[in-house]
Write a structure and sequence with these properties.
The protein has one domain. The protein is built from six helices and six strands, in the order H-E-E-H-H-E-E-E-E-H-H-H. It has a four-stranded antiparallel beta sheet. The protein has a two-stranded antiparallel sheet with strand order 4-5. A hairpin with a 3-residue loop joins strand 1 and strand 2. The longest helix is centred in the middle third of the chain and has 27 residues.
Length: about 230
């Protein structure tokens, strides 16, 4: 596949991600929750001013720095995708890069423009540009329970798995990164083969055993015979 085909994959991720976010913004209220698959999968509308999976960077300039980092990462991943494609890297690896790129761009759009066009920047933001909040909605509270009182440190506390709320862009980035880690031997077979071959070659060849030589070189010395015997 040529590089532009992988960019089409990234574009598809961006389209799905942005469509889902705008639909949630249009038809749901903040913190509204809709059951999709019982209590296991829900749509929960949240605004995330920080990083993926609800993580936040508590700093006055944290949001601006995070947005700038996302933009730089977006261009870096795009450039690396082109280079890797020209080097005929494994198609699966290139697809993973496309998933990561699409997810990165999806969240960059939120951070850069949503503060202005959707007016969702935090009130304390110095400017609405580059301070937009990312729209999250995917919520999988698979199970919940209360820790027994005898468990040290957490006894009696409530536990929910899986508690983070995220979006399509976050999912795309996670799937791309996880797949690269999972299939790295398949994606980079030459590197693995080279490492394996080098490990089999001994650092130094063993020296041949030295045999004792006679004073005349390699000729054996005949034993002396006593003529009187």
């Amino acid at each position: 596949m040529k590089p532009y085909k992988y960019f089409l994959i990234a574009l598809a991720i961006i389209a799905i991600d942005q469509t889902s976010k705008l639909l949630v913004h249009e038809y749901m209220h903040i913190h509204e929750e809709i059951n999709v698959l019982g209590n296991w999968f829900k749509l929960h509308y949240l605004l995330n001013p920080g990083m993926a999976f609800g993580l936040r960077w508590e700093n006055e300039f944290g949001k601006l720095a995070l947005t700038i980092f996302r933009i730089a990462a977006m261009f870096g991943i795009g450039y690396y995708l082109i280079r890797a494609s020209k080097r005929n890297s494994h198609a699966g690896f290139l697809v993973c890069l496309a998933l990561i790129l699409g997810g990165a761009i999806g969240n960059v759009i939120d951070s850069t423009f949503y503060g202005v066009f959707l007016d969702n920047a935090p009130l304390e933001s110095p400017t609405k540009w580059f301070h937009g909040q990312v729209i999250d909605m995917l919520f999988f509270p698979l199970f919940e329970f209360t820790w027994p009182e005898w468990v040290p440190g957490v006894g009696g506390e409530y536990f929910l798995f899986f508690s983070p709320v995220f979006n399509i862009a976050d999912s795309s980035i996670f799937v791309g990164v996880f797949s690269i880690l999972l299939f790295q031997k398949k994606f980079f077979p030459h590197h693995d083969k080279k490492t394996h071959t080098e490990s089999e070659v001994p650092a130094t060849a063993p020296a041949p055993e030295e045999l004792p030589e006679s004073p005349e070189g390699n000729h054996e010395i005949a034993p002396e015979v006593d003529p009187h015997s």
